[in-house]
Amino acid sequence: MLTKFETKSNRVKGVSFHSKRPWVLASLHSGVIQLWDYRMGTLIDRFDEHDGPVRGVHFHKSQPLFVSGGDDYKIKVWNYKTHRCLFTLLGHLDYIRTVQFHDEHPWIVSASDDQTIRIWNWQSRTCISVLTGHNHYVMCASFHPKEDLVVSASLDQTIRVWDISSLRKKVAPADDLLRLGQINSDLFGGVDAVVKYVLEGHDRGVNWASFHPSLPLIVSGADDRQVKLWRMNDTKAWEVDTLRGHMNNVSCVMFHAKQDIIVSNSEDKSIRIWDATKRTGIQTFRREHDRFWILATHPETNLLAAGHDSGMIVFKLERERPAFSVSGDTLHYVKDRFLRVYEFSTQKDNQVVPIRRPGSVSLNQGPRTLSFSPTENAVLICSDVDGGSYELYIVPKDAAGRGDYMQDARKGVGASAVFVARNRFAVLDRSSNQAIVKNLKNEIIKKSPLPIGTDAIYYAGTGNLLCRAEDRVLIFDLQQRIVLGELQTPSVKYIVWSSDMESVALLGKHTIIIANKKLVHRCTMHETIRVKSGAWDDKGVFIYTTLNHIKYCLPNGDGGIIKTLDVTIYITKVFGNNIYCLDRDGKNHVVSIDSTEYIFKLSLFHKRYDHVMNMIRNSQLCGQAVISYLQQKGFPEVALHFVKDEKTRFNLALESGNIQIAVASAKEIDDKDHWYRLGIEALRQGNTSIVEYAYQRTKNFERLSFLYLITGNREKLSKMLRIAEIKNDIMGQFHNAMYLGDIHERIKILENAGHLPLAYATAVSHGLEEIASRLATELGENVPILPEDKKRSLLLPPSSLMCCGDWPLLRVMRGIFDNALDTGRAGNEEEEDANNADWGDEELDIVDVDDMIQNADISAELEDGIENKDNEEGGWDLEDLELPPDADTPKASANASSLFVAPTPGMPVSQIWIQKSSLAGEHAAAGNFDTAMRLLTRQLGIKNFAPLKPLFMDLLLGSHTYMNAFASVPAMSIAVEKNWTESASPNVRGPPTLVFKFFQMDEKLKAAYKATTDGKFPEALRLFLNILHAIPLIIVDSRREVDEVKELIEIAREYVLGLKIEVKRKELKDNSVRQQELAAYFTNCKLQKMHSRLVLTNAMTVCYKGGNYATAANFARMLLENSPTEIQAKKARQVLQHASDKKDASQLNYDYRNPFVVCGETYVPIYRGQRDVSCSYCGARFVPSVEGHLCSVCELAVVGADASGIPTSCPSTFKPYIAQRPSLSSNVSLAVVSLSFWGFSGTLASVFIGL
């Protein structure tokens, strides 16, 4: 069994394949119907309108319909395109077991536990016949694929075949009397369907019966654990044979659509394959825990589906890929037990040698691989017979076309065999992991041990083998016995070498890896659909097929779709625009393709720009994919020449910095948003005339004023002031007056607006005494009092560095595309000159981009407007101000497009950091907090980021420095790279410098230990939490440091838990029992020996004072076993002496004999064997009710969250320096401990802390 797809769900009771699309329906015992794409492995849709289990489901052959029947007595017809139920057919009185569409007529047949079979017309939505005769549940009913027959199986131990030919002739009755007769006949069993045969032979109820697709055969399966084969003719039907082997009820059985086999499944958790001709068992497939209930065969392909207790599987019985080998102009392949030769040039196909049939009756025993030696005309054919074997054939030169030529093949045992030289071949012996080299007489020449555990070998050049292991491939030289190259790969199925043996493609189930002849990795392609085959073309492009596409892969890893396939093919050779291939039936085909797209991309990759330009001019390349590719590869100026849509041209022009085309497109679009974006790009390029024109078109007067300010154009600022005055825009007037530094105008504006106090303050501040006295008179007693000790100064805007001109642009060399495209334009201009001569042609209204881009000025309009204001009483209505249609736009200089372009902004270093790393610390250092938080959530299940916010800010500030360039511009941010040197290449970026280093954790750990020893529990708790919060943002580089990170997390977790328990104990004043329990739980935490002694002393004291003498004595014994100090030992002996024979006064929830962990939130013991949940980051344990809560130990992650684990190594491209971390057991100096902090009295003692 070759499993292609598998689902996990409730019990699957019904399965149906779509005839054309890669879809399968599964109806579940829960009442849901699922629609799956088995190629992609995705759930497309689900339908859940049935109430109760759905036992039957079936696709229509040609319409977008399927039918379902369930335990709610309803038959529903669905349209999967509109995702809804079209109608419901009612009539059955009990559970509906199966439903099926007829292939030709608008009929549905249904079987039910009400002991009837009904045939419905789904177009008229009526029941057209009721088939009665069974006297128990009818378990299934189905139409014959060609004849007018229905077969049904029932628990009454019979199979019935019904003749429904009269249904074809049935017409609507003409009068009511006949219609009444039809109703009566339908109710009591009419003559539309009659029983043709009743097949009796099963000893128990029959669960399934089905027709053979072409022969007059029926197969059935029953609760007597037997599968029976029946034959029928025009007059009778009889039992042919019984197939025994199942150990429980047979649930379903049917004929294979394309092979002479029978497939059955059973409640004994097995699927059995039977030879329909020999009527013997071939193979059995078992599941451990799932009973099988239903089978379905695909009507077109060799796929089958089976539903079981926990889902469904889609599978094939045999491999369909033909074994073939290409050598020069010939293809050798195996078809129908013959070795055949196909010539690509002449397309002639001949059979040359018959291949023996395997003696075994098992499946998948046909040829698997084929290797050909052209000089000796020898063929090696490998198969899975006898666990792996090969056959060697020598093909005579004159054998082509002869089908009667026979020879005895030389045989041998081996997992795989390939030619490695002209007359030598290598055989893989898996048992000894050796390559055995043999000659054409099948004699052993030598044996070579292989360097890795190999499960397959492939040709890799003369004398070389490519060895495949589970997770890698390598090239092994058989003569020198050395490894020439090695590559880590996922599981590889096929190897394809280029014709010059310089490149190799390693094909997996869903991956393609391209490497060179030394197995140096070049690129990897990932596919969601299975990869089937591939071949190299003569240009070095790898062409491959999936189940439904022909695709290509360039040397740089770029790929695309060439063609969609109706059927799966296996590529044998690519030549020019033709693909030679084999289909699953072993037939040769030639598929024509259009290679323009991938040749265009290949020319770009190889920088053959002359070919690119030629293809641009002559080919029909177009489409969003090509445009996106050109944008992605940094050629938006080339993409411009493929685009006619003005909006797309505008976007590409902005991206490529081509301001001329952008202006032309903006004129055509004439949209406010596009003018705004044009203004931003023109401002970035410093083309102020275009910026001015864009702001004029959108009437953005505020931005215009600011533009004139920064360019120092005071004349136009004055005009903007007049426009604001005409529009009665008070704020606009005031801003323009401020930009101009005109104090009198500002006072006038404030006075006219009624803000006399502000006008007075402005006049006094600037020393305009006459105006101030006049305003004071008007204000009277409301004159504002101004501070006298303040220094007054005139508020003027700074003068611009450059006045009234475009900013200087970077001078760069013109590219090949600019020259080539300009050459094309020049030729067009010559043609236009000729066309515009006096040849009698009519004038065309064509807009020239260069004519549009001319100097624009609003001064003329303003002057005309002011004159009109003087002459008209109504004044200006500037809201309706429109620029004339022939208004000149600013003209860019002729040299600007050819000699000056805007510099292309590079990628920020912080963005490079993000692209290269999946470590949260580096994302935080780059300032991308969002992705850092997502990484921490995915890796560690962290949800509470409040404690990490200051750490994120420290990482960001520590990895950047800031530099002031000019007084008028903001400071520039500069990324600080680790180990940067002046000799470092500017194109190679290192990782960020992180302020948190792993060796710093030792200092924090020592400080936390000291605070714990001193009894400063809140301080110690804060320090240990800081360690837990910093670890997710620290990067280490060695395996040893990874282990130390895990050790550090465990240490911090234990101390945080213990300290929180102790803090909780100190908060309890009145509950003596709970205090003793918490003191006892603290002793269970894994602490340093010094701290363990202090904790045991504390617990001993608390329990002794609480009257629990036995528990106190136990703690005293534990303390004496931990090398206590003299004072501690003395106290422990005293407790043992007084409490050894006494009992506990109260019962504690504490059993020191039973191992336990303490819940981090409820502080109760979780004994061994009890269910618990843990924090995804720190590993603290909790009772199950806490699942989903925030971890109360680390205060970061969610308890029970799924997480991939903390990444503790740097990316391969980064090699950061990590200072060697001191051992966690390093000594700490002498410290003074106050014993009173630990809950018992005593004087200060000097205690040596050995950590």
UniProtKB/TrEMBL annotation:
GO terms for biological process: endoplasmic reticulum to Golgi vesicle-mediated transport; intra-Golgi vesicle-mediated transport; intracellular protein transport; retrograde vesicle-mediated transport, Golgi to endoplasmic reticulum. The coatomer is a cytosolic protein complex that binds to dilysine motifs and reversibly associates with Golgi non-clathrin-coated vesicles, which further mediate biosynthetic protein transport from the ER, via the Golgi up to the trans Golgi network. Coatomer complex is required for budding from Golgi membranes, and is essential for the retrograde Golgi-to-ER transport of dilysine-tagged proteins. Residues 339-583 form the COPA/B second beta-propeller domain. It holds the Pfam family WD40. InterPro entries: Beta-prop_COPA/B_2nd, Coatomer_alpha_WD-assoc_reg, Coatomer_asu, Coatomer_asu_C, Coatomer_complex_subunit, N2O_reductase_N, TPR_COPA_B, WD40/YVTN_repeat-like_dom_sf. Residues 873-885 have a biased composition (Acidic residues). Residues 611-770 form the COPA/B TPR domain. WD repeats lie at residues 47-88, 89-130, 131-172, 199-240, 243-284. Keywords: Cytoplasm, Cytoplasmic vesicle, ER-Golgi transport, Golgi apparatus, Membrane, Protein transport, Repeat, Transport, WD repeat. Coiled coil: none annotated. Residues 814-1208 form the Coatomer alpha subunit C-terminal domain. It is found in: Cytoplasm; Golgi apparatus membrane; Cytoplasmic vesicle, COPI-coated vesicle membrane. It is a peripheral membrane protein. Residues 863-892 are annotated as: Disordered. GO terms for molecular function: structural molecule activity. Oligomeric complex that consists of at least the alpha, beta, beta', gamma, delta, epsilon and zeta subunits. It comes from the Eukaryota. SUPFAM superfamilies: Nitrous oxide reductase, N-terminal domain, WD40 repeat-like. The keyword Membrane applies. Its main location: cytoplasm. This is Coatomer subunit alpha. It comes from Zingiber officinale (Ginger). One of its GO terms (cellular component) is Golgi membrane.
